[in-house]
Write a structure and sequence with these properties.
Blueprint: H1 2-14, H2 19-37, H3 43-48, H4 65-91
Helix pairs in contact: 1-2, 1-4
């Protein structure tokens, strides 16, 4: 999903709008829907908690703690800026 978000941002900045961008946008909205269902937690995190006692921030992903703690904010901003640029470029 991080790759999809970065691709939408890239496509918006460099005006490379194609079918893959729209697929990425659809997948990101699907992920948003799933996160809403699971109360902003990844379903794999819920599953992972069954198999470990270490449930500190980022226990389920290989990221630095500061990035794991703030990844939703960082990637949300990147996606919204990228989506805005894509929509702006499509309408102009």
């Amino acid at each position: 999903m991080a790759s999809a978000i970065l691709f939408v941002f890239y496509a918006g900045v460099f005006n490379h709008i194609n079918i893959i961008v729209w697929i990425c946008i659809g997948l990101i909205f699907l992920e948003l829907f799933i996160l809403l269902i699971y109360k902003w937690k990844c379903p794999l995190t819920v599953l992972g908690k069954r198999y470990t006692e270490d449930i500190s921030v980022g226990f389920d992903i290989f990221l630095p703690k500061w990035l794991a703690r703030n990844n939703k904010i960082i990637f949300s901003i990147l996606f919204l800026v990228g989506l805005g640029l894509v929509l702006w470029r499509v309408t102009n």
